[in-house]
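Hi L.,

You mentioned the student needs an example of a multi-chain input paired with its predicted structure. This one should do, with 307 residues in total across all chains.
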Amino acid sequence: MFRNLFLAALVAALCAGLVTSAFQAWRVTPLIFAAESFEGSGETHVHAEGEAPAHDEATAATAHDHGEDEWMPQDGFERTAYTVLANVLMAAGYALIIGAVSVVFNLPVTFANGLYWGFAGFAAFTLAPALGLPPGMPGMPVADTLARQIWWFTAAISTGAAFIIVAKFRAPWALALAVALILLPHLIAAPQAPDDPTGVPPRMTAEFVSAVLYNGAIFWVVLGLAFGRMADYLAARPAAIPSGARA
Amino acid sequence: MNTSAVSTGVSSISLSQRLVAGALALLLGLTLLVGTGFAGDFRLHNGAHDTRHAMGFPCH
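Structure written out for the whole complex:
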């Protein structure tokens, strides 16, 4: 079982990680790059108008708190390679979490129900966090990172738990509890971004949010279906090919 | 609904085995998720920067 779980998660992670990488390269990363060209563009304007450079640096630091001497991948192949690697590792993380939920709660992932798993994952890890914390591009004003991360996790876990409860218990109380769990994080307000000026055009911001949500949907549907297909295959295999290893 | 071989495969395994497998998978999964999406270390942040933005993780 351990082997099957990890194998299914690995294959699903590769599929979903590579599919999201392709979509990101097409529709998401170009927007990130474009936003980066605006990062600090407001200050350049101000600078041209003769504002003090001290103010300049202070705004730049709040907008993007990276030291200049920090390591970061070179734009081009290196940056893309790191992004693909990060996508696959993140996908493996999600796939293993899905696998853990599946074994602990005895809710099998199959090709037939993979779409439900995908939609549940999308709702819990993309939609619910995005309602309180709209996906943002570099250079946009944001609230404290740790506070946002805590709220993000709360929204994801609470929404995910709601799905597990309705999957396990077909009863009115379970439905009521699930609705409460889905609402809960949104009643606790998410950390609000300050109203700082940003050079990123509003149209680009809207395009980015749509692209991130679409990307999340593709990622989760592929992850759910690939996980289910692989789990089906691995579960059927020992009967057909006696491998000796206990699955 | 799920009468496939997977369900019989999973349910034939004892609860404690399921919990151990689940805990292991969860631990590894969360480590990967936190490492790519949340860790504050600048190398992890900068390497996974575009992933974080594209997947809607809270970034800078």
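You could point out the following to them. The mean pLDDT of chain B is 85. Chain B touches chain A through 48 residues (CB under 8 Å).

Best wishes,
N.
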